[in-house]
Here is the input.
Amino acid sequence: MSEFERKPCVYLCEGCGIKDALDIDDLERVATMEMGVPEAKRSDSFCAGDGYETLKKDMESGDVNQAIIVGCSPRVMAEQFRELPGQVIRANIREQVVWTQPPNDEDTQMMAADNIRMAAAQAQNSEPPQAYWDAASSLKLLVVGGGVSGLSAAREASKTGCEVVLVEKSDALGGWAAKWSKTIPGAAPYTGLQENGIADLIKEVEEDKNITVHTNTIIGQTEGMPGKFTTQLVNGKGDSWDVFGSIIVATGWREMDTAKLEHLGYGKSDDIVTDIQFEQRLADGNIPKTAAIIINPDKEIQPFSSGVSTKVAIKQALQIMQADPDAMVYVIYEELRAHGTAESFYREAQEAGVVFQKGEVKSVDGDLTVTVHDDLLGANIPMTGLDVVVITTGMIPNSTNIDIEAAEKGEDQLKDDIRPNLPLITINGEEPEAASDDDDGDVMPGGPILNLQYRQGPHIPVLANGFADSHYICFPYETRRTGIYTCGPVRRPMTIAEAKEDAQGAVLKAIQAMRMSNQAEAVHPRVGDLSYPEFGLNICTKCRRCTVECPFGAIDEDPETDYPVLNPSRCRRCGTCMGACPVSTISFKNYNPQMVSEMISAVEIPDEFDEKPRILVMACENDAIPALDMAGINRRQINKYMRVIPVRCLGSVTLLWVKTALEKGYDGIMLMGCKSGDDYQCHFVKGSAMAQERMSKVGETLQSMMMEEERVAVTEIAISDTRKIADTLNSFGETIEGLGLNPFKM
Amino acid sequence: MTAPLPEVASRKYDLTFARWVRDNVEGGDKMNMCMQCGTCSGSCPIGPEMDNGPRKTFMMVRAGMREEVLSSSTLWNCTSCYRCTVRCPRGIKVTAIIQGLAQVAAKEGYAPKGENASFANAFWWSASTFGKTDERLVPTLYYFSAGFMEGIRKSLDNLKIAINMLKAGRMHIGMPHTIKDKKGLKAILAKAAEIEKAKG
Here is the structure.
């Protein structure tokens, strides 16, 4: 980091009540005299007006290439400062200091001064990032799956002018929907049955000049990264290779294993059918006189109860009633999940005469006698005289490829998988074992869909019940493989209307990923970030922790030297690799172990006679920092001894920083990240969990140093926890004051 | 009432019963709308006196428990206060359905022989004779229908209520009140009987 010539300048903002609460002259002295920044300027606002013009002029003329703006939170006014050439560093003395601390107080002044010291240290140890490549990359989209979701995705992408290749493993487009007649309503007034419109959609796709359709084709293997995915398309006739910018996986769902339904009478009679089989009968016009439809009868065999089963049951019941108003339909349920607009659909069915019966199905006999334990009557009710018994089954996600025929076409390629211990597609009738990896959740039986040539394995990671992993709240379409997006029922059970909408969302994300990669910028959540991790190979010990712990599989090992090799556009710039590296040799231009260590050291630690503890808060900038800002906006009083350093993700926190802080005399350290676990909210999937894992080992070290374990704490903060974050920090402050000062204080 | 109840193999659980009720009982077409919230049973002032109450009755109709529904006291203890109908969030004519089921039950021979019948007889005698129910004659007739001694006992049990009603002006002394046009009432009842007979 030596070639970059730093020209820093401090811009002290006096607006928004800062001038009234702090001694600005003192702050200027800290910045210039103490931290050695050559110049400091003051204004009532650097975000607009004359102040902004001065700042812009300084930076555009090249007199200043590092602007240290001391004022509000980096989360506000970001747009204005993004336009400026050069590096902008923000010291937050508004939300975090002036708005959470009493004005004109000694401790408030110290906190503001420390924030400036940290910003100056940040400037001294970072530089503006440079793009890792400037070569243009592919802007072509690959859609895997030719059902409703895939067709919609292809069509939506084409409408934006994007070139699309659609791959379908069977011989025809349309998927399940092509076999069926009416569908669940997807438009107001949400009461009547609708035509599923699949024929029109197929026609649109086939006539679309931007879309190339390959049927009878599977993916042999996929290597590369966003913008440069090199994919092998395999079919009976011959293989071909193509380069894509991003990939949408819309492989949909498959039927549940009907062997699991035997205890519900399945197989005892031809008239005990699954909803999928019954759908075929309805399409054929085979309407029963009396029918019982059982919704999601057994939690053992299908742990998730989706609203789709309920809607399908309502739809089929209504379809019978409309075909034959004299028919009698019983819908037996334990949980009726007719949420949202489906309530209108449910009422429509009730008005048409469908009987909804709450109860648990005890048995189904071969003569179609269904025994229901009615919860509301507390009795077992035998239902006789039925013509057909329909059992709704769940949608099992196609997060793996189970098609044997298709598998054989790609057999040779799949055998050369880079992780041979993972099961491949069923071959010669042998049942494959589930590819399970504790970290990646349960993978359904079958081979990989894209057969990714990634260090982390060929599969797309899944979360619960085999559905593709996604950040449910913020990034529903993203998988843990950057540039690869899922949509439709492979993500969660969906109706046709929902799948179409889902395809639109995934397409927008996929196009964004292609374009961002083309400009060497990061995709979500650090959209537009140019920085990328660099590896100091001179001290790298080839320990592989970075390659293993990267949540996105961005880092491979060089097959010859074993050193880490980055696939830059797979990287989301979270810094989890940096936090993992035991020798701290992974760094970003504007975020690295050295920089944060210097920031930690820059804080002035009062000596022990002052009895003023210092608490280091390393807070995730995605959720904890906004929550902290909100606490400031709400004027919540927060512990006056805390010093906050925003981190990209808790996963990027290295133990080096904790060690530095304890050596420097901090009395307590708190890490604030997002929720981890199955319902994680971590923007980088595993950063928060990883930090907790790493910090769990700090306790022993602390004990060996004769220090209390409580001095280092990890908490989970959601973006809405503005009250909790203040309470947490205040109570942690009390704990630390109770423990007394750090014995290593100078 | 049009169609008679069909003969089925089991009267205990008859899957066609719900359908039959829907087609043949007034208000029965809306019975499927019931979501079992229990507002009807909770609102019913006679609830504690009923064996099932309207909510459970509906559930039993859906389950096809024909015999149990038709022999239930719920049908006969309803006083037609219409609270259930007014309060039903799904707009079901609960009272009409209960009364309709009572008619079916009477026709099918499920009408109770005991106290319910005695009270109904006393009520009907007063209503058809005077066009009004007489607050002294109806209970008297009802009490003594179980025998002379039983009548004395029941009357004495309720003496305090009677005195309080007198004090409050809720019970009068003298001839029973009647409606003005008793002849018209007789004609209405005769016509109703005729229609009912024609229906079979």
